[in-house]
Design a protein that fits this description.
The complex is a heterodimer of chains A (78) and B (263). Chain A is an all-alpha fold. Chain A is built from three helices and no strands. In chain A, helix 1 (2-18) packs antiparallel against helix 2 and helix 2 (22-42) packs antiparallel against helix 3. The radius of gyration of chain B is 24 Å and the shape is globular. Chain B is mostly helical and 263 residues long. Chain B has nine helices and no strands. In chain B, helix 6 (131-153) runs antiparallel to helix 7 (162-178). Classes of the chains: A mainly alpha (78), B mainly alpha (263).
Chain lengths: 78, 263
């Protein structure tokens, strides 16, 4: 279970880094946070899991999505 | 071409991080046990908190917690300082020709409130937002707030505590701001109110940390140590204050950053 979660998180992180659309990257980052919250819970650290779920998947996603409203698309789809 | 170079750099940095961290995971030396054994034997008796995590960060290592709250206070002050200047800079050079011109009434509304707190019809930047989101977040917001306060006040018994309860409360504040009904004036989602709550909570934290001095215990000494009826009373108090501070601070950061209108 732990290995599976870690592999999923690694895959999502790489997708986040190479994705061309900022919104997809942010959603992938949020999913990584959610998976790591699950991982913390499975490792018997529920306090950290609550923080990670609320900050990583909730608040920071809201801030990032709010911030990309200020950006513009420089390149068209290939 | 540039994207390819970035990809190669990403792979190289990931590989080097793996190379550095892998020996740490593979090593087999035993963990130091003395601190763990002490906490296992004396932690609950010394602090009165069943949840040893909150006993550590509000009892044994409370200076770390003070440092963290100062970091949050600095972040909020910096946000205020940067955003009051950045609003004018962001507005320049941004193409607003596609959006319809504002009437005087709308301009007045935007000047009065942050857009985040406006009713759906008056927001220019959220044209795609449906009523579904507003109804769901408006109903969920108070429930999330309640859960945040539960986490704060029961942090000494169950998983949770000031920081956890605070960030959940901040999520509740964001929900309330997203689900604001038409014409509703909720003071909890105004940036100025949240700012004041945060500052007041920091003042309370300093007063609570000094209160032990009156009992002859020193900075962050527990003034309620001799009261055996509520052994964890001081931890509950600190959890509540820190929860208020973190909730108001992070809620303020989100509302100040996200709710800003480019006009």
């Amino acid at each position: 279970m732990t290995i599976m979660l870690l592999v999923l998180m690694l895959g999502l992180s790489i997708f986040m880094l190479v994705s061309r659309d900022l919104l997809f990257g942010i959603i992938a980052l949020s999913a990584v946070s959610l998976l790591s919250a699950l991982l913390f819970y499975l490792q018997q650290a529920p306090d950290v899991a609550i923080t990670e779920a609320a900050v990583g998947a909730g608040v920071s996603t809201v801030v990032f999505i709010g911030i990309i409203r200020y950006t513009e698309r420089k390149d068209r789809d290939p | 071409m540039k994207q390819k170079a970035i990809n190669v750099l990403t792979i190289i940095s990931l590989a080097s991080v793996t190379l550095v961290l892998l020996p740490l995971f593979l090593e087999n030396s035993p963990w130091p046990l003395s601190a763990r054994n002490y906490l296992e034997l004396h932690g609950v008796g010394d602090s009165g908190a069943i949840n040893l995590v909150s006993a550590i960060y509000l009892g044994f290592r409370v200076f770390d917690t003070l440092g963290e709250t100062i970091v949050l206070l600095t972040a909020v002050s910096g946000t205020i300082g940067v955003l009051t200047r950045a609003g004018a800079v962001l507005a320049e050079g941004y193409d607003t020709s596609g959006t319809p011109a504002l009437t005087e009434q709308e301009k007045k509304v935007i000047m009065d409130d942050h857009t985040f707190t406006l009713a759906g019809e008056k927001r220019r930047s959220h044209a795609l937002r449906t009523h579904l989101l507003e109804v769901v977040t408006g109903v969920l917001g108070p429930v999330v707030l309640l859960f945040g306060f539960y986490l704060m006040l029961y942090g000494h018994l169950s998983p949770g505590g000031g920081f956890q309860g605070g960030v959940v409360t901040a999520s509740g504040i964001i929900f309330l701001a997203l689900g604001n009904r038409i014409g509703a004036k909720n003071p909890l989602i105004r940036a100025s109110v949240l700012d004041r709550i945060e500052a007041a909570a920091f003042l309370l934290l300093i007063l609570a940390s000094l209160s032990g001095i009156l009992m002859g215990r020193g900075f962050f000494g527990n003034p309620l140590q001799d009261v055996t009826a509520i052994p964890a009373g001081y931890i509950i108090l600190l959890n509540g204050i820190i929860g208020l501070k973190v909730g108001a601070g992070i809620g303020f950061l989100c509302i100040a950053m996200v709710g800003r209108e480019i006009s």
